[in-house]
Here is the input.
Amino acid sequence: MSSSPGTSPRTVDPARPDDFPRIAQLTFDVYVGGGLASPGYGEQLRDVAGRAERAELLVARDHEGRVVGSVALVLEGDFGEVTESEDEAAFRMLVVDPAVHGRGVGALLVTACLERARAAGKRRMVLSTDRRMTAARRLYERLGFTRLPERDWRPTPCVDLMVYAIDL
Here is the structure.
């Protein structure tokens, strides 16, 4: 890892199976512990091995090699639950350790997803996010994503998700 103490990670790598417990705990803590998801969703958030079968898991590491962020990139299949064509990619469960918020980890992970989707021949990246995820929405807008309100959806009666997209 090329980062030095106090700086943000500069690379994103594919997750390894030994990263899965850290990804599971980090995702659960941020989403459920942060009040962004219900405890009932916790089982899915902790199922990193299941995600790895349906998506490309990417991680950002700190200067000591510790996972400080993760995202599930969906280049094919239905795990994205928001894609409508083969030309679209999606990402899910973007998570950044609160200890490194503000250091560009989220932007680094999203940018890596965009680059990988372009390389795979995708023409658009889509994502869905909860209205309560204001920091994530600000990041997406800053990176050029725009709202697709006609594609907003409701996975459960109490969860309304907003859809964003960017052309690649």
